[in-house]
Amino acid sequence: MSANMTKDQLRELFLFTDLSDEQLDWVNENGDVVEFAADTDVFSEGEPAKCFWVLLSGTIALSRNIGGDRVETGRTDQVGVYLGAVTFYLEESLENGYQSAARAITGVRLLALPAGKLALAFREWFPMAVHLLQGMVLGTRRGQAIAGQRERLLALGKLSAGLTHELNNPAAAAARATSTLRDRVAGMRHKLGMLAEGKLDKDALLALTGLQEEFADRVHDAPELSAVATSDLEDELGDWLDDHDVAGSWDLAPVFAAGGLGVADLERVRAATDCIDEEAPLDGALRWLAYTVETESLLREITDSTSRITALVGAAKQYSQMDRAPYQTIDIHDGLKATLVMLSAKLAKNGIKVVKDFDLSLPKIPAYPAELNQVWTNVIDNAIQAMKGSGTLTVRTCSDDEWLIVEIGDTGPGIPPDIRKRVFEPFFTTKGVGEGTGLGLDVSWRVVVTRHHGDLTVESEPGDTRFQVRLPLTEQR
């Protein structure tokens, strides 16, 4: 086996530039130039790691099997890029097999070196480098495993805290309304009995029950009034009740006002009770109807609360992509909205205003939605921390030629130029000890650039920091 390459050709490959003539002779004698046609597999994940491959020409893509799906992790046409048994200097790596698969996108030429022989030669040529590489690789693996686990736990804790907080509010409201509703229903039964003892005639009873049905229906369509308008309406109703000697006007007026009733409605009740015996005064009829109005208001509150809980659970499922395929065609806005819901408690706690500038006409795109949701979470969480208690978060979507663009901006102090250059580096963080691992934006960059063949950039100045994610509109091979 021989590569049949000259020393000058080998030295054009950056890996071999500084090798001696003897070492280049070894590479040439033990290597082999292999060609693969487009759309053919070079090697498969898990098969014995026999070769260390160096790209000589063409475009090649790497992929891994994740959850039963073949997920592309990178592609390149850079001459000299190496792949395959890249950790040949670790003895166990050859036994474990290839960690990924490689496929020729176009026709490719590769230099194949036998991994076992290369390992022996490498240890002889660079003994100190082997020790350093072994220590670096093993140490990095342990560090990434620990830090990655902590990063996931921190993210899960933040989202769980926000979700439980959001769920607690409507759940508590529904429980409170249910408890109050029990008392109001009991009171309505009691007042109905008292009215019956007042010797109602048929016309009066029909009039009151008709008003009961009408008032109950109107509660669900009651308009939202300003605080001033509500106060004015309560004053008008209170004055009318006082003028007609109805006790507890301060208690009844807010109930009728919340139900969208006015003085004209109370006049209709008074007219219906004109034929009732003095033993069943206007007071009893109004309280009976007040119980009806309040009961419907409580039922509306329970409905709103349970609907809110359902919406939150739906947002959580959308965010986690529970029971959904990892790769699918998605509306990018679904994930953005779900992420904002999951982080809403944290946004509210920090007094941050959210502006959603969405272009809803954008087409659906092929993507890994669960991973993109993690990108939105990382970027928005960083923005929240940057604004430190006040500011505006802007989430904008638009398109540009063949790209869908998601831009997340904040009004924080900005990112200094020297830090901006490093924000996507693994383990780089400006946060204090225990506040972050520095993996969030590195993971985001890999998800956008490597997994989706897109781009992730940042522009920043005081009061205006914008992270821009560009995703292809069509599936990339």
What do you see in this structure?
- The structure is a single chain.
- This protein is an alpha+beta fold and 477 residues long.
- Helices cover 52% and strands 19% of the residues.
- The protein has helices spanning 7-11, 21-30, 91-96, 115-125, 127-197, 202-219, 227-243, 249-258, 263-272, 282-320, 332-342, 344-349, 369-387, 417-420, 440-451, and strands at residues 32-36, 40-43, 51-57, 60-66, 69-76, 82-84, 101-104, 108-114, 328-330, 352-357, 365-367, 391-400, 403-410, 455-461, 464-472.
- The strands form 4 sheets. The protein has a 5-stranded mixed β-sheet.
- A hairpin with a 2-residue loop joins strand 12 and strand 13 (403-410).
- Helix 4 (115-125) packs across helix 5 and helix 10 (282-320) packs across helix 11.
Describe this protein with a few key phrases.
15 strands, 4-stranded antiparallel sheet, 477 residues, 15 helices
H/E series: HHEEEEEEHEEHHHHHHHEHHEEHEEHHEE
Query: Total number of helical segments?
Result: 15
Percent of residues in beta strands: 15-25%
- Please estimate the helix content: 40-55%
Which outline best applies?
elongated
Mean pLDDT equals 78
Rg calc: 35 Å
